[in-house]
Design brief:
Elements (H helix, E strand, L loop, with lengths): L1 H10 L1 E4 L13 E6 L2 E5 L5 H14 L3 E5 L5 H4 L2 H7 L5 E3 L3 H6 L1 H14 L5 H15 L1 H4 L3 E2 L4 E5 L2 E8 L7 E6 L4 E9 L10 H12 L5 E6 L5 H19 L4 H11 L12 H13 L3 H4 L9
Parallel strand pairs: 3-4, 4-5, 5-6, 10-11
Antiparallel strand pairs: 1-2, 2-3, 7-8, 8-9, 9-10
Helix pairs in contact: 6-7, 9-10, 10-11, 11-12
Length: 307
């Protein structure tokens, strides 16, 4: 790990690690990439502490933030857009247009569920605060929607630095953006790779499997997942193998627990000791709600689905 961070400093990028504290929603990883016009910030987290860490990193690098890239619209990756743009007004948000579908489907359902939870009296004060913050982020369209839409895979110059920007339709979301920096041999994968468990809430699993093949095809040395520690190629290959095995197990006749146990075994290097008690429930939930759901529910986030 020390070698990765030394290489990062030499090649002009920096990781601001996300977090997933028990009882809170997560913050995704953030990557800062040096560019001629300033810093490119890839994903902005959800909580104030994470946004403060991004701004502190920019200050330490003595460079302005020149652009935001959102790998996808989940609030643990976009929730800090407003904070960063308040500090650096007018900077572009570069992302796919998949958030437009979320504004019609996922967000209204999520808001209704959150409001019902608050009304039930079961939500703690900190949970209510986080829910209200998420609702505010959903409503802040100027900082949620992209100002520059990624419509296809190809080379793009951002803040003066040329990057390969990839668009995956119907994977972890209806439009996942990931980046490859050939100079640094760096892939920033967003939630196409999540160490402890693939977050399948808005996923089209087979499209996701295809997207991982595209990631594997670039000659990266280091991959930054949406959550979790940086990976070398061998680690990514192991994670991808665990992902494929989970999908294959769930598509077959094996017992639900067998598929959960398989993930816990195959993905063991990516699951911290503190997370080992909660990951089985997460995998079980995704088996029930995505991988073995009713056909119309399984298709919800796939091409032609209601979103």
């Amino acid at each position: 790990m020390i070698a990765i961070f030394l290489a990062a400093a030499a090649l002009g990028w920096q990781l601001v690690p996300g977090s997933f504290v028990k009882g809170q929603s997560p913050d995704g990883n953030t990557v800062l990439i040096d560019a001629p016009d300033g810093l490119i910030v890839i994903d902005t987290g959800r909580h104030q502490a994470h946004q403060d860490a991004i701004l502190a990193a920019a200050k330490a690098r003595k460079k302005p933030i020149a652009a935001i890239v959102n790998t996808h619209w989940h609030l643990d990756h976009t929730g800090g857009n407003a904070e960063i743009r308040a500090a650096f007004p007018g900077i572009p948000i570069i992302a796919s247009d998949a958030v437009d579908g979320a504004l019609k489907g996922f967000f209204p359902r999520s808001r209704k569920s959150a409001e019902d939870y608050i009304a039930s009296g079961k939500a703690a004060a900190e949970q209510i605060k986080e829910i209200r913050s998420d609702m505010a982020a959903m409503d802040d369209l100027a900082n949620l929607r992209p100002t520059q839409v990624v419509r296809a895979t190809g080379p793009v110059t951002i803040a003066g630095r040329k990057l390969d920007v990839h668009l995956e339709r119907y994977a972890a979301t209806a439009g996942d953006v990931w980046l490859y920096d050939s100079k640094a041999k760096l892939a920033v994968a967003g939630d196409l790779v999540v160490g402890l468990a693939p977050f399948m809430d808005t996923a089209c699993p087979e499209g996701w499997r295809t997207a991982l093949g595209h990631v594997a095809a670039v000659p990266f040395r280091t991959l930054i997942p949406g959550h979790g520690e940086p990976m070398d190629r061998a680690a990514f290959t192991r994670w991808r193998t665990a992902f494929d095995a989970l999908l294959d197990c769930a598509a077959g006749t094996a017992e639900r627990q067998t598929c959960i146990d398989g993930w816990m075994r195959d993905a063991a290097p990516f699951i911290a000791d503190a997370d080992r008690t909660r990951v089985p429930a997460m995998i079980g939930y995704y088996i029930d709600t995505r991988l073995r759901a009713a056909p119309e529910e399984k298709a919800r986030f796939c091409p032609g689905g209601p979103g």
